[in-house]
Write a structure and sequence with these properties.
Largest sheet: 2 strands, antiparallel
Strand order of the largest sheet: 1-2
Shape: globular
Number of domains: 2
CATH class of the largest domain: Alpha Beta
Structural class: alpha+beta
Number of strands: 4
CATH topology of the largest domain: Aspartate Aminotransferase, domain 1
Radius of gyration: 19 Å
Distance between the termini: 60 Å
CATH architecture of the largest domain: Alpha-Beta Complex
Helix content: 25-40%
Strand content: 5-15%
């Protein structure tokens, strides 16, 4: 029996090794499957957060490849800086809101720094008013997407996923974030919570 494997990675700009536009890579040892994967390029949907088909991000062009080649020598440094900045966020925000916890013996590259807040939307507005951008990367659970409508799941079946999708808020995160900027963001989060 032959085992077919697929590996994937994203080069979305917010990722530690990101290009300037959409990009990703899939790896497989099956030529027929590789041909099918080439056809699935826009997450299976025609508009954002609406996916009637199951798909992946597979778009990529030579300009994006050139960007990645230029950034690759700096990748280890970026991962180190993101880890340091993410750990500092956690130290400063622990107790104010739910923060990411890294299990002993593990690491985190902090493609995003995401906290959980029960009043996420109000928090995002308060931070925006202070000039602090935020993002919600996954506002819907998979079982809420049309492509999975027939899987027998309904609202309430996956309460932790549902709660997380309504509470997650990503704060500014990049390897060039200064301590001063981070302190201002943390102070604004704490003030908005109070």
């Amino acid at each position: 029996m032959r085992v077919t494997l697929i590996g994937s990675t994203s080069f979305f700009p917010a990722k530690p090794l990101g290009c300037y536009g959409d990009g990703g890579a899939l790896f497989t040892n099956d030529d027929a499957l590789a041909e099918k994967m080439k056809a699935i390029r826009t997450h299976g949907g025609l508009k954002r957060h609406h996916h009637p088909l199951l798909g992946m991000n597979g778009r990529f062009d030579t300009i994006q490849a050139a960007v990645l080649l230029a950034k690759l020598p700096h990748f280890d440094w970026e991962v180190q800086e993101r880890g340091r900045i993410g750990a500092r966020y956690t130290e400063l925000l622990r107790g104010a809101c739910a923060v990411p916890e890294v299990a002993p013996g593990n690491t985190h590259v902090y493609a995003q720094y995401t906290v959980r807040l029960p009043n996420r939307d109000q928090m995002a507005e308060r931070l925006k008013a202070q000039g602090i951008p935020t993002a919600v990367y996954y506002p819907k659970c998979l079982h809420e997407q049309p492509v999975f409508a027939g899987n027998g799941r309904q609202w309430g079946d996956l309460p932790e996923s549902e709660r997380a999708s309504r509470e997650v808020l990503s704060l500014p995160m990049h390897p060039f974030l200064t301590a001063e900027d981070q302190d201002r963001i943390v102070a604004a989060v704490k003030e908005a919570i109070a």
